[in-house]
Amino acid sequence: MDGGIVMASISRGKSNWANASARSKARKAGLIDSTQMRQLLQQEPDAMASSISEMGYRADLDLYATRLSGADLVEAALNHNMDRDLNQVLRFCQGHLGDLVSIYVERYTYQKVKTALRAVRSGVSDEIVSSQVLPEENQTNSQWLELVKNSNNLGDAISALSGTKFAKALSSVEDSNNLMALEDALDRQYYHDATEKLRAGASSHPQLLKYLRTEIDHRNVINLFRALKQGLSSEKRNELMLQGGHALNSTNLRQAAEAETEEALIEILRRAQNFDDSGFDVALIASRERGTLDPIVNNLVDQRMVMLNRMATLNPLSAFPVINYVERKACEVSNLRMIIRGRAAGLSDEVIEAHLRI
User: Fold this and answer.
1) How far apart are CA 34 and CA 117, in angstroms?
2) Distance CA 191, CA 187 (A)
């Protein structure tokens, strides 16, 4: 997609803001648009795979076609394509820009750790893990596949990760068999480390810091609504909170964790000075009607998408055009996965579309 872009060469070690921005915009223009996504939804599963192949995923589908089929084939291809795309983006970002984009993209490494831990916890065979969960054709899976193969339980996996940047977070969890607690600890570490890097030093970037702090706010809001539905105690709800958000400080979070109803929770959120509640009423009504938090999740995602797009437009020679593309690419892959898995599970078009971010 970006091979036709000709820019002046940039010396090694210096940021190539203009080059990376142009390449990211070109890639973003080539993503599947909402009309194409809805057209996919109208197709039969076999036709879907063919159409997805023509939309930029042919090489990845061909790679797995000899041993996988149906939804498993498409999902493996999507994951492979996403990993390859991230590596390409990181390679064309240099200097300070590369540092900033790496901070953002590091979240996907944390997701790999979570995937490996889930595979260990589920006890699936090495064959299934290497063929479906973490396909061995994808080189980015190598270290995580090795971790799964050599771990009989989560305790083994945590020990194997000793000495890595993940060790501190994982060792802080008292119950090594509590997968949810381990994942929460990894989330805390990612956001803590990322925001610390963006506050000072060579990677300082106040605007990107603000965006990540908004992500923290939104993660906390979703966790609060989910914890209420699960009937968790206020103490447990408070333990779930990530620190360092933009609009919700420690006091707001403590009060929100003590709310016993959704109405009380919303009132506390709205009292937070910088919390954006636009679209919240409609999302909450839809959430109650459907019995799912998806409308609230989608509303918050839409807010961040608008924020990223605005920052990329106002700051064309910055990390935002690149990060905006990465987030849109991740959204495309998530939508395609939902369509193919939803259709394979027999879900209606209406239910599938309600889960899409388009």
Assistant:
1) 34
2) 6
Residue recorded with tokens 């939104």: 218
- DSSP letters along 22-67, please? HHHHHHHHTS--HHHHHHHHTS-HHHHHHHHIIIIIHHHHHHHTTT
Amino acid identity, position 199? R
Tokens of 51: 């159409």
> Cβ(48)–Cβ(339) under 8 Å?
yes
Burial class (CB in 10 A: 0-12, 13-18, 19+), 308: buried
288: its two tokens:
């109650």
Q: Number of C-alpha atoms within 13 angstroms, CB side, residue 19?
A: 19
Angstrom distance (rounded) from CA 190 to CA 136 = 26
- pTM higher than 0.85: yes
DSSP state for residue 247 in the 8-state scheme: S
CB burial string 210-230: b at 16+ within 10 A, e below: bbbbbbbbbbbbebbbebbee
Q: pLDDT of 50-61, one tens digit each?
A: 999 999 999 999
How many CB atoms are located within 10 Å of the residue 34 CB?
A: 11
pLDDT, tens digit (0-9, with 9 covering 90-100), for 135-191: 999 999 999 999 999 999 999 999 999 999 999 999 999 999 999 999 999 999 999
SS3 state of residue 153: coil
